[in-house]
């Protein structure tokens, strides 16, 4: 079924939806943020939240039920917390739509409507998870409330994969420079704003901490000025994600401060990759995190190569019982 067909069927069966819950773990939780951000900014009536799966399981929202749509996400479709969340949501009567790369997985089997996304084929395929989730959120908004930029959003969904694939060759030398300059750093801070804030979290938590065992923290470029900026000093490594959209002034303010004290700054800027030339202005904001996350895959690969620490190396994850 297409995303449109799925939402049409959900609407026919559940005409009165009040809330949309996004649920996952790790990168698959983080990847849902763009869609949640979109709904918070655009929905007039639908309420929404993004919840890590076990928090959803142990402390579910009191209004979870037949008036909720639950969207779960797991790349491999086996993460036990996320599978349990899907089961619990269905037991409470909510329609469950899942996003996964694995059609036969326990997650797909425990959802009413599986949406299968690509991953391994290309850099842009890795961003199908985020993109399809954003498309799903826009479809839900359109069908339940009406969404005036719906056509623009669908154009953006069509165009974003080409923007990402075109960006990769330009990102490679910049990523190699970042890797050369940061391979021996013991800590790297990452920040972003607006819809891209969670991309900073993804790079910090999963690429640096999980896959490289490098100490890191991530924060919003707005919150930076309310605590973390006290750490800034000459040579301290920061990565700043810059949006081509509404919250860019927040990114510019952070950059000016970092430069004022000669921090070691790596900027990854959506404006460098021509987002605005391809994606309609009315929806461009929401495609920043998709582009930046795609480009940051190259940065992850480059630092792994420079540090001789493969992205697949783990000490505990999937090896121990925890
Ligand atoms: N680093 C991985 C993430 O990349 C992954 O997203 C998550 C859940 O895995 P899955 O997406 O298969 O549910 O596990 C870990 O946190």
TrEMBL record:
Keywords: Isomerase. CDD domains: SIS_1, SIS_GlmS_GlmD_2. InterPro entries: FrlB_SIS, Fructosamine_deglycase_FrlB, GlmS/FrlB_SIS, SIS_dom, SIS_dom_sf. It comes from the Bacteria. Residues 6-146, 174-322 form the SIS domain. Pfam families: SIS. GO terms for biological process: fructose 6-phosphate metabolic process; protein N-linked glycosylation; UDP-N-acetylglucosamine metabolic process. GO terms for molecular function: carbohydrate derivative binding; glutamine-fructose-6-phosphate transaminase (isomerizing) activity; isomerase activity. The keyword Nucleotide-binding does not apply. Gene3D superfamilies: 1.10.10.2240, 3.40.50.12570, Glucose-6-phosphate isomerase like protein, domain 1. This is Fructoselysine-6-P-deglycase FrlB with duplicated sugar isomerase (SIS) domain.
């Amino acid at each position: 079924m297409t995303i449109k067909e799925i939402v049409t069927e959900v609407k026919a069966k559940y005409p009165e939806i009040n809330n949309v819950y996004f649920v996952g773990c790790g990168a698959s939780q983080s990847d849902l943020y763009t869609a949640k951000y979109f709904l918070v900014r655009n929905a007039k009536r639908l309420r929404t939240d993004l919840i890590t799966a076990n928090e959803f399981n142990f402390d579910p929202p009191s209004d979870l039920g037949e008036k909720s749509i639950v969207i779960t996400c797991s790349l491999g479709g086996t993460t036990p917390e996320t599978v349990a969340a899907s089961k619990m949501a269905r037991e409470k009567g909510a329609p469950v739509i899942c996003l996964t790369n694995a059609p036969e997985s326990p997650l797909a089997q425990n959802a009413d409507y599986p949406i299968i996304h690509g991953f391994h084929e290309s850099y842009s395929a890795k961003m199908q998870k985020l993109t399809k989730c954003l498309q799903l959120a826009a479809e839900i908004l359109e069908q339940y409330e009406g969404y005036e930029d719906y056509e623009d959003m669908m154009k953006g969904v069509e165009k974003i994969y080409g923007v990402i694939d075109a960006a990769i060759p330009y990102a490679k030398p910049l990523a190699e420079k970042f890797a050369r300059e940061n391979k021996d750093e013991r800590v790297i801070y990452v920040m972003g704003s607006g819809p891209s804030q969670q991309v900073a979290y993804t790079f910090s938590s999963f690429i640096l901490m999980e896959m490289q065992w490098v100490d890191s923290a991530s924060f919003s470029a707005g919150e930076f000025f309310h605590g973390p900026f006290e750490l800034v000093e000459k040579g301290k490594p920061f990565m700043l994600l810059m949006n081509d959209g509404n919250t860019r002034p927040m990114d510019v303010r952070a950059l000016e401060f970092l430069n004022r004290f000669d921090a070691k700054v790596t900027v990854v800027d959506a404006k460098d990759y021509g987002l605005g030339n391809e994606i309609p202005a009315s929806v461009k904001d929401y495609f920043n995190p998709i582009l930046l996350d795609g480009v940051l895959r190259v940065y992850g690969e480059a630092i792994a190569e420079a540090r001789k620490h493969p992205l697949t190396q783990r000490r505990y994850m999937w090896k121990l019982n925890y």
